[in-house]
């Protein structure tokens, strides 16, 4: 599939579903989860896949995981590592996904349908009606969100940027934005000019001892004339918040 996509859709970024990659190796991973349950291997494994913001962080986190559990020669983990650029978010932060991958969008719809509308015993003639009910419920939900989106929201500050996005984002996305805005106050900012560019070094003031691989320090390049700022964490490019 990868070869065909590259040929027929040049320029398209093709990644693979993280859930399917991990699930393919689940029998062996389940054994590891049970073997190292007391040391929370399962939580640490998924944390390494999900939390690193940059390739540098992921590489450090992955190596720390292997060293802690002495799994440098584990074939399954080696296979997962070799495919890392295809499914680990830290490697495609340049690509906008709106916090959700394409497979997650379809699987989200499938989950709602199976939970609330149909099951494996649903007859074909009822399935068609239930599909219409499902589509109607989604449209009603979307209309509800659109209605709430037109109402004025209370903001935590008077910053023009926050006021602007409060009129654009949905309720859930705006809540996430506000949380990140508060989290930003945990960083120190200092000038860090590089080759004539306006750059800043942003450092977290309360470094986590649990995530020793965390970078906690990022460079931000600024173009004040155009009002453009680019942080190497690339959260804005990847999620829009």
Main beta-sheet strand count, sense and barrel state: 4 strands, antiparallel
N-to-C series of helices and strands: HHHHHHHHHHHEEEEH
Strand content range: 5-15%
Q: Which class of secondary structure composition applies to the elements? A: alpha+beta
Looking at the structure, what is the overall shape?
globular
Quote the distance from N terminus to C terminus.
Answer: 32 Å
Structural Rg: 22 Å
Number of strands: 4
Helices and strands in order:
Layout: H1 2-8, H2 18-24, H3 26-35, H4 41-50, H5 55-69, H6 75-82, H7 84-87, H8 102-116, H9 124-150, H10 160-166, H11 171-183, E1 187-191, E2 198-204, E3 217-223, E4 228-231, H12 235-239
Antiparallel strand pairs: 1-2, 2-3, 3-4
Helix pairs in contact: 4-5
What key attributes describe this structure?
241 residues, alpha+beta, 4-stranded antiparallel sheet, 12 helices, 4 strands
Describe it for me?
By secondary structure, this protein is an alpha+beta fold. It has three domains: 2-91, no CATH class; 102-150, no CATH class; 163-239, no CATH class. Helix content is 53%, strand content 10%. It is built from twelve helices and four strands, in the order αααααααααααββββα. It has helices at residues 2-8, 18-24, 26-35, 41-50, 55-69, 75-82, 84-87, 102-116, 124-150, 160-166, 171-183, 235-239, and strands at 187-191, 198-204, 217-223, 228-231. A hairpin with a 4-residue loop joins strand 3 (217-223) and strand 4. It is globular. Putative transcription activator involved in regulating light control of development. Its main location: nucleus. GO terms for molecular function: zinc ion binding.
């Amino acid at each position: 599939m990868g070869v065909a996509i590259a040929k027929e859709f040049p320029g398209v970024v093709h990644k693979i579903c993280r859930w399917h990659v991990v699930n393919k190796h689940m029998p062996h991973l389940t054994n590891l989860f049970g073997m190292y349950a007391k040391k929370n291997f399962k939580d640490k494994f998924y944390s390494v896949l999900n939390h690193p913001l940059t390739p540098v962080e992921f590489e450090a986190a992955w190596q720390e995981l292997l060293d802690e559990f002495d799994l440098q020669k584990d074939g399954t983990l080696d296979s997962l590592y070799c495919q890392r650029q295809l499914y680990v978010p830290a490697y495609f932060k340049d690509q906008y996904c709106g916090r959700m991958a394409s497979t997650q969008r379809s699987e989200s719809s499938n989950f709602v349908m199976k939970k609330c509308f149909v099951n494996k015993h649903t007859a074909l003639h009822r399935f068609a009606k239930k599909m219409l009910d499902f589509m109607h419920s989604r449209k009603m939900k979307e209309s509800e969100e659109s209605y709430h989106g037109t109402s004025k929201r209370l903001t935590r500050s008077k910053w023009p940027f926050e006021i602007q996005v409060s009129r654009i984002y949905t309720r859930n996305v705006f809540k996430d934005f506000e949380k990140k805005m508060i989290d930003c106050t945990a960083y120190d900012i200092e000038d860090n000019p590089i080759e004539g560019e306006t750059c800043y070094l942003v450092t977290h003031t309360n470094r986590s001892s649990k995530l020793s691989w965390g970078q906690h320090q990022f460079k931000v390049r600024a173009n004040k004339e155009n009002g453009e700022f680019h942080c190497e964490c690339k959260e804005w490019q990847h999620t829009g918040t």
